[in-house]
Amino acid sequence: MGMPSGGEWSEGLEEHIYCCSAATEVLKFGQLDLRHTSDCESSANVLFLIIPGNPGIVGYYKTFMQALYQTLDHKYPVWAVSQAGHCLPPDSMEMMEDTDIIELEDVFGLNGQIEHKLAFLKQYVPRNIKLVLIGHSIGCYIILEMMKRDPDLQVLKSLLLFPTIERMALSPQGKLMTPVLCKLRYAMYVPVYFLSFLPESIKASMVRLVLRGLQSLDESSIPASVTLFSVDCVANVMYLGSQEMVQVMDRDNPTIKKNLDKIIFYYGSNDQWCPEQYYEDIKKDFPEGDIRLCERGIRHAFVLNASKEVASMITDWLHADLAIL
Questions:
Q1: pTM, rounded to two decimals
Q2: CA 246, 182, 18, 35 torsion: positive or negative?
């Protein structure tokens, strides 16, 4: 795919870059370069930026982003930045840049992923750009940390979808996955290594087999999932997961309180990562907050089969905020 810098792209442009010396994939709909945007281009002065969950593979969000871009009448650029190292870089790139300069220690860990997103904004998004931050799962935790560490970010709204922002290891899924991620993850690398040599068509068939129970499966989930046949990618995914289980414990109430008018929380009604009790608890602590419980039965991994539905909801939520720009 080729497109002049600064142009627009309605079908989604995938770019691989180094950010904090780590291979990073960026997916863009709409304006491709915001660094040379005129002040009079009001629509380009707002960026919708998606911070993914884990795995932080932007391909999972392609249908969601395209639907969001379309329901916003192509007025605002919609970008997603992968988690550092959660991508399959082209043959011309390594997972880590060959440089003597170490920009960030442990870029693949949780703290490193937060600093990675702040570094991406600093490098590619001018400070005058208003941000609509959309976080999914651990991406919600990252967004809260971004707002805490850089309070001068021009955040118009933060939408936290199925937010894993507290007590991850104590959640039903956390209790199951903590031993796997913290003690057994190295055992997973050997089978992934051997599977990585399979033809792409067989990998895709295996993914379809695993996801066969889902109705209305999003086809873009197939190539995104095939990325997980890379040992390097899986290692980075599981390493981040292990840190999530240990570090994401107490909800950051001070940051939430400071930014409450800018945040919308959206909890699942049957979410094994952030159960309904977590929704009840935060609702009790912040009764004036915009904290919603899903009534549509949408799963935590909404990108697998409910991307268009969630994109439509988000557009409705933001109608008033965008109308006054």
A1: 0.94
A2: negative
Number of helices and strands (H, E) in the chain? 12, 8
pLDDT digits 0-9 by tens, 28-57: 999 999 987 654 454 559 999 999 999 999
CA distance linking residue 289 with residue 155, whole number of Å: 17
**319 labelled catalytic:** no
With H, G, I as helix, E, B as strand and everything else as coil, classify residue 14: strand
- 300 catalytic? Reply is yes
**Is 137 known to be catalytic?**
yes
Own/partner long-range contacts of 9-15 (Cβ < 8 Å, ≥24 apart)? 10/69, 10/74, 11/66, 12/62, 12/65, 12/66, 14/58, 14/59
Catalytic residue among 21, 218, 225, 271: 271
Q: Which of 21, 137, 220, 242 is catalytic?
A: 137
CA separation, residue 128 to residues 124, 141, 146, 248, 324 (Å): 12, 24, 16, 31, 17
- Give the end-to-end CA distance of the chain in Å, rounded to a whole number: 33
The token duo for 319 is 């109608």
Contact 216, 183 (CB under 8 A): no
**What confidence tens digit (pLDDT) does each residue in 264-309 have?**
999 999 999 999 999 999 999 999 999 999 999 999 999 999 999 9
